[in-house]
Amino acid sequence: MSASQPDLALRGTLLRFRGDPFEMPPDEALDIETDGIVLIRDGHIVETGPFARLKDRLPPGTGLHDYSNCLIGPGFIDAHVHYPQFGVIASYGEQLLSWLERYVFPEERRFSDPGYATQIASAFLDALLANGTTTACVYCTVHPESVDAFFSESQRRNTRMIAGKVLMDRNAPDFLCDTAQSGYDQSRALIERWHDRGRQLYAVTPRFAPTSTREQLALAGALLDTSGTLFMQTHLLETTAEERWVRSLFPERRSYLDVYDHAGLVRPRSVFGHAVHIHDADLHRCHDAGCAIAHCPTSNAFLGSGAFDLFEALRPDRRVHVALGSDIGGGNALSMLRGMNDAYCAAQSHDRRLHPVQAYWLATLGAARALGLEASIGHLTPGIEADLCILDPFCTPVLAQRSARAESVADLLFALSMLGDDRAVRATYVMGVRQPRPRGWARET
Ligand SMILES: [Zn+2]
To answer: Pathway it belongs to (predicted)?
Structure first.
C-alpha cells in the first residue's frame, strides 16, 4: 500500500484482548469497545478507541466503513491445513491411513501440474478469506511446483501465509516420493525463493514420521538450522494405528515425539498437527521446547481419530502452545467458527467447558503467540498488520434470533461459533484492504 493511500476507519464493536483467557477470568480477558473505531494507515493499525472520542479527530480524507452491529476482530489463524486436499473434502468412508491411500494421494499427484496447482491454490485462498482466515499454516505437496503456485497466489493477495513442500521418501506411492537429498535441495531452493519474501514464510514440512526415513528427518533438522525464523510442521499422534506404526518403524525411540526430537525438529515455531493421543512426558517436552500443537477437532471428529484433551495440554505447570486448525481435507470446514464449535464439543467429551473467549483466543491471538507472530498479527493493537475479520451476528434468521437474546459479547461469540459459518463473515481485510467476495459466495460485501 502506498503512503498516499487515505487512512481508513472501521466502526463497530471492537474485540481486543486485555490478557490471556486461560490465565485470567475469560470474561475479563476481552476488552470490548461497543461503539469503536479501528484506524488503519499504510496497512497497519494505528489507533483504536471509542467512536465518540475519535470521530472528530480522524485525518481529512479518512474513509469510514460502518460495521455497526458487527464485531471487529483480528483475522482468524488456521494452524494446520492442506490446500491440495481442498478438492477432496467431504470424502466418504475411511479413517486416516486408508483415507490417505484412497482419496488424498491420487489427488496430490495432480499437483505436479503448475496450472492445476495454481487453480486450486487460488480457489483455496479465496475460500480462506471468505471465511475470515487471513493466515494459515499450509501443507503443499511433494512437488516444488505446488509451493511456487501457492506462494505466488498468496503474494498476489498480500496474505501472510506459512507453507512448505511436503517431504516423503518412503511408504507412499512412487509418484509422491522424493529422496532425502532431493527433498533437502528442493526445500532449500524454495526457502531462498520464498521465506520472508513480502509476507510469505516457509515451513519445513515432513508429512509425518512414517513417510520419512531417518536420513530425511535429519536433513529436515539441518534445514531448520539454516535460519531461526523458519517454521516446521508435521503430524503427530493423530490415531492409535499411526502410533503403532511409528513404534514399529522407530523401535529405538522413546516415543513418537522423540522421533522428531532426535532429528532436531522439536523447537519454537514447530507446529505438530493433532497430538490427540499425546502422553504426559511428551507434553512436558513440548512445554520445555516451546513448540505448538495444532488442535484440529473438526478433522478428528470426521476421521474418527479421537478427541484431543485441550485442557490437559494447557495444564498450568507445563502449558503447551495450542492453536486451532481446520485440517482440510481431513476436516470438512474451513470456517474457524466451526473449529471453535468443534473444539467446544471435544472439550465437552472430556467434561471440560471451553469458554467462547478462550475459543476465540485459540483462533486469533493465542495462535499468533503459538507461532511466534504476535508482533505482526492476531490482535487489534497499534503497530499490528491490519488483517481483520468482521463478524455479523445477525446474518441468518436462526443466528439473528439467538443473538438478539445474547447477554454479553462473549455470549454473542458463543452463538456465532455454534451457529455461524462463512455467512457470518461480513468482510475480511488484508493489510487494510477489504477483500472482494469471490464469485459464487453468498454475500456481497
Ligand atoms: Zn493434516
So the answer is: Purine metabolism; guanine degradation; xanthine from guanine: step 1/1
